[in-house]
């Protein structure tokens, strides 16, 4: 008869049990890790115990239970099987039954790795490692031989997930949407730089929502952008208050067609970022302090005064910076009409920079991609790594409620938190 568990039995002290196991392993000279290490043996015992429990459930009686005699099916010999786990290869004994009807779920038939291994592969791929580098990693760290032919199907499995993510429903309204580009090298006959565009929305709850990824060829026009924005709108984003972009041909016209009420704003973040590209890194902190009064000025006149002071200090050393700001000035100044809380949202770079840093790291590690889909898959995996949901959520601004109130006043009747 099967032993029943005592519902008031004292729970196992896991720490005490672990200490006992470690002490016993040390006494017997058993290593913690390695092919014959303690973790390997524990994993083997846990998997085999689980498989035995599945067999008991399948047959309806315990091992050696006389009630099983004459039942028509019984335990048969076991077969050895090696599975790849998060701690390396583990050899287990899988039970079998006489009529071969047992279908284990813990370690399924023909399954050669536990699901946690797939997540390790996806995590390494998200960091930009190639299939060869991932195979070498498993060999070095786990002492396990994993072929490239095994790794590629694991990463390819996310293509369906990526398609689902790219088509998921979106919020009805976004106070701000940023459109940015990351450049990747794709070998299509010859290696060429291609842009992949990412749209990042700020939700009415003050969270970053990565809306999608779209590959381009560098020659995008209004038709391309109309298709991209229509896709976003068809997924539920009926209204956007401000679209922040930078020098993308045809995009402002497409924005006006898809969201007629949206304000198109030149990206102040890009303007600031491009400023530092002309200057020596040792001056970045000082230059950032001197530039901040320009884009935080209360009026255009005050901003112009601060920029004259900035130019007087840095203009002779870096004339290209002065020229860049002069050329962009007419597109920059509409930003100064916004409430200070709205400006903070537009100039809050952390949520964008953390995403771009992951993208750049993954792209730089790979060097180049064999196809457009391979590049999109890599960038999606980097997005996926930010959040298990794949949405890459992060708080956009700590003081979100004042910003939400400012948006509700500036765009009256269009911001409805409860409706999202």
Automatic annotation (TrEMBL):
Region (Disordered): 59-79
PROSITE patterns registered for this protein in UniProt: TRANSPOSASE_MUTATOR
Keyword field contains DNA-binding: yes
Keywords for this protein: DNA recombination, DNA-binding, Transposable element, Transposition
Pfam families: Transposase_mut
Lineage top rank: taxon: Bacteria
Protein family: Belongs to the transposase mutator family.
Function field: Required for the transposition of the insertion element.
This protein's name: Mutator family transposase
